[in-house]
């Protein structure tokens, strides 16, 4: 029982992380129908940028446990700012020139950008050829419950992860449904040409989309770092795929879908690792199988609308 | 006032009156540049730093190596003014070649701390050669911008058969010699010769310039027209020429091994080209089929770690490998019935990852997991082990030559399969699907069958290549078949030109030879792949050797009806357009 509860909690934490990344995927796909393959790498760079903020920007005296209320927001800011700059630069330099190209072109470009980002960090961040440790005893409160025979543990970082992801999704949903720019985004997603006629600037809207996606990915990066206590160039690709699966599962373009999809993927990963034959060696395989099944049988996902036929 | 000619290429408008001064002046400058001292004084046999001095003055007019190239480019640029050729096209190619040669030979000593080309001196003497040649190159390029580019002349291809044969033989032999020269330029790279990279790049720039000029006067078009007309003859000559590579200066163990690797990748890339280039289905997990072929062959090879305790003859094992890979191809392709476009790409990626995970976990005891399947014996036919050197009469051939021959035969076979498929009913169906799936279906094409068949055939070819791969590398491990290898294959196809046969081979060759030559950049290999993908999609989506008959989907018109080539500023305005106008 305790094991199950523990795995449920782990799944929710992982799910929150995946949901944060998936939001960026789903928004970008919703608005320009691009699978932004490099989005996972933006998340990874966000993690490294927040670590760099800690190691190279924060004064020495702020790096202890007591200073986390200042240090953590600053790290998050560092990670998010770098991730936003990166995401916007990516859109401007790589994707915008291909706006009218056939669909394979931007996808292949995104693949190239993803490889470039990963390699850039691996080559140029000090020590990034191996996982780089995050400061350990930084935010490390653990809460334990006794449950029958076993114990269940929740770390402060785990709670933070779940709270931030849900809060982020709610704020985003409100912004998109209530604000003027949110309406512009929805209009551009539905029909860019008509949106332009109605006075919406599509380029500005798209940049805004990448900005929000980048910020959330950067935030996810810092949360991942303090929770897992290291960051690695490999995680971008892996979590990018998880997040994409989540976005598709929930229905691409839907905020609610991305969040629910994220939590579902997180739970599937931890529970299949615990209870299915093959254990953690095959937990990724189940997620990929799920991805294939969803794409084949319900490509519009759980909450999405059937895809419009595009020329 | 009339607006100056609105050239797509240039934001700078050069008055036509300057054409001659710039062109001839550039040529003269290039000749001067060749004779002036260069700080990178490398004769092809000398090490970089030793020769990177100004000792040039001891033998003022001796030219060889890259200085000979500069001299040649300059002379040709001047001569071109006095013979009837599309001058601006030729000058543009020569100019870029000159810029390339000069830039490489200026930048490398700069990187090496030798100082900037023009201003390093040994006290009193200055080495202006690089700068002068660079200026010469820029002058030529500017001369080419004084007007629109001329159309490429079309030479008559109705020549007597014997003449055509002679021309083809000569061109293919010349190609062989150039390839051997390129492979050998500067040696193998790495510790042995740290300057192999710049020497090779410099030669590459020169050859690109020459090739561009030849294209400009219509020669390459003529030759490819002839080879189109005498297809079978060209294929046979090409295979013979490729088989002659071991007899040239590039016939070393090292290049035989590299060439065999290129062959494996080229065969796989051609298979991928069927899926991506012809049918327009993006496959991001393609390397899995190579892996399946390799694991199957390894298991039937009699290796100690194999799952089956039988040793099948290579041919049988290769056929089984191809069939198994083909079956998996059909399975992976089956979602194409319902999934389209980039969603399909993700499905194939997921399959690739599932394969990797399964192989990593030693599924069914078939893959050896982290231990891999080591010690796969080399192929052995008629008592000749394929990994040993071969002596025919008094001629000693390097080891690995038999693998090389086998791979050449395999690649030739795959090319023939591809060429025939492409022009067959099914090939046309694939292209129709690539262009517009709904229209293809409306025309009565069974799109589902056709798409699965594309995956099946592509995977079969990859499985065949995998069987050779297993024996050649002797260790088959799951980590040889990761996502990044799929990206590499895709990069080879895209770099060469989607749907184009020579393109896939050229792409694979470039992606494998360049890292061998540019060892000093080996850390940046993957990053350069990524950069290549981005830049090609941006500036030349049709690839280096575009499929001539049908423009690939990626060179298609944009949504605004503007051809992609016109949407960018740096690329040449479409060659095809110039011809049809």
TrEMBL record, chain A:
It is found in: Cell membrane. It holds the Pfam family BPD_transp_2. Coiled coil: none annotated. The chain crosses the membrane at residues 12-35, 70-89, 101-117, 152-176, 206-226, 238-268, 280-297. GO terms for biological process: D-alanine transmembrane transport; L-alanine transport; L-isoleucine import across plasma membrane. It comes from the Bacteria. It is a multi-pass membrane protein. Keywords: Amino-acid transport, Cell inner membrane, Cell membrane, Membrane, Transmembrane, Transmembrane helix, Transport. One of its GO terms (molecular function) is L-isoleucine transmembrane transporter activity. One of its GO terms (cellular component) is plasma membrane. Belongs to the binding-protein-dependent transport system permease family. LivHM subfamily. This is Branched-chain amino acid ABC transporter permease. The lineage of its organism: Bacteria, Bacillati, Actinomycetota, Actinomycetes, Pseudonocardiales.
TrEMBL record, chain B:
It is a multi-pass membrane protein. InterPro entries: ABC_transp_permease, LivM-like. The keyword Protein transport does not apply. CDD domains: TM_PBP1_LivM_like. The keyword Cell membrane applies. It comes from the Bacteria. It is found in: Cell membrane. The chain crosses the membrane at residues 21-41, 61-83, 90-111, 123-142, 162-183, 195-220, 232-248, 254-279, 286-308, 314-334, 401-421, 452-470, 490-512. Its main location: membrane. GO terms for molecular function: branched-chain amino acid transmembrane transporter activity. Keywords: Cell membrane, Membrane, Transmembrane, Transmembrane helix. GO terms for cellular component: plasma membrane. This is Branched-chain amino acid ABC transporter permease. The lineage of its organism: Bacteria, Bacillati, Actinomycetota, Actinomycetes, Pseudonocardiales.
